[in-house]
Specification:
Elements lengths: L2 H20 L5 E5 L6 H17 L3 E5 L6 H8 L7 E5 L6 H5 L11 E11 L1 E5 L7 H10 L5 E4 L5 H13 L4 E4 L3 H9 L5 E4 L1 H9 L3 E6 L14 H4 L7 E9 L4 H15 L2 H10 L2 E2 L5 H26 L3
Parallel strand pairs: 1-2, 1-3, 6-7, 6-8
Antiparallel strand pairs: 3-10, 4-10, 4-11, 5-8, 5-9
Length: 323
């Protein structure tokens, strides 16, 4: 009576082993919800090159910006869970997308397989070079004296660069004008051109223009100074206690990714992120490799951290009269 269940179990184990052994046998697509040239795209290209070498198949970057990052996320949520379509995105996946975009019908917990964090980074508070204020304190004072007049750009409504600005408003008790763009590069260019006053940008987007003297850096968005940018004050030192904001780049697959495929992807990702060359390239971009301990640990962390981002989004939407 026990032979059939035993044979079935052995057959399943054999199939799963074969699946892991054969994966991947064709190129993998990594969907990124941001245009080329920004922070997410930069992380994707550094990590995917090494990850593809480890897995033995090329990883093709598919940039799909638009509607925040919901177009990319929806594409992966609907993909076949075979490990050949993956997603790199940020914490907007955890409720911010659904709050701001009615077309976003996915659920981060139910519709995605959590694989691992990839990297994290402070953002940089940058201002147009013609703005007279030289400090965060001065910036806040100007905003208080001119409610709704000081403008800040982001790479899209509901994405992390928007939430960094919204959290800044909430912590400082000020009201600024949010101007969203389709991606980090045009968002930063708007500040460099003087069309927008300030931005909270990713290092790959901000640094080239800052180094060219087209905008000025005032602080990092973490509470304390960052080892990546030792010459810039953290927010606590700059006069805004209680503000601490980083951007996390994370890797996902569609829901129900087979366990052997998930394990192989996680182990290969961890190996890639621990590679000295990958670490060095990420640090040059202003990022730190941040591999998770396990997919389970990553999911638990992400769901908890996602609630913090959702609360910021809800407060921003209420202030703007959109929620």
């Amino acid at each position: 009576m026990l032979k059939k269940p035993l044979f079935a179990a052995l057959g399943l184990a054999t199939c799963l082993t074969a699946l892991a052994d054969n994966y991947p046998n064709k190129p993998i697509t990594l969907v990124v919800g941001f245009p080329p040239g920004g922070g997410a795209d930069s992380v994707a290209r550094v990590v995917s090159e090494k990850l593809g070498n480890i897995l033995g198949q090329p990883i093709v970057i598919d940039n799909r910006p638009g509607a925040g990052t919901t177009i990319a996320s929806d594409n992966v949520a609907r993909a076949n869970p075979d490990g050949y379509t993956l997603l790199l995105t940020t914490m907007s996946l955890y409720g911010s997308d659904q709050l701001l975009y009615k077309s976003a019908r996915y659920d981060a917990e139910k519709n995605f397989t959590h694989i691992s964090r990839l990297a994290e980074s402070p953002m940089l508070l940058a201002v147009t070079k013609d703005l007279p204020e030289q400090s965060v304190k001065g910036l806040i004072e100007r905003a208080k004296q001119n409610p709704g007049k000081l403008s800040y750009s982001s790479s899209g409504t509901g994405v992390v660069t928007h939430l960094a600005g919204a959290a800044f408003e909430q912590n400082a008790g000020i009201n600024m004008l949010h101007i969203p763009y389709k991606g980090g590069a045009p968002s930063i260019q708007a500040v460099a051109a003087g069309d927008v006053d300030i931005t909270f940008g990713t290092p790959p987007s901000v640094l080239p223009l800052a180094q060219a003297g087209k905008l000025r850096l005032l602080a990092v968005t973490t509470a304390d100074r960052s080892n990546l940018f030792p010459d810039l004050p953290g927010m606590k030192e700059a006069g805004l206690d209680g503000y601490n904001f980083t951007i996390s780049y994370n890797l996902y697959g569609p829901a129900n990714l087979p366990e052997p495929v998930l394990t192989k992807l996680f182990e290969a990702t961890t190996q890639a992120l621990n590679d000295p060359d990958v670490k060095s390239k990420l640090e040059k971009q202003g990022n730190v490799a941040a591999p998770s301990q396990s997919p389970v640990q990553f999911k638990q962390w992400a769901l908890e951290e996602g609630q913090r981002y959702l609360k910021i989004t809800e407060a921003a939407a209420t202030a703007a009269g959109t929620h």
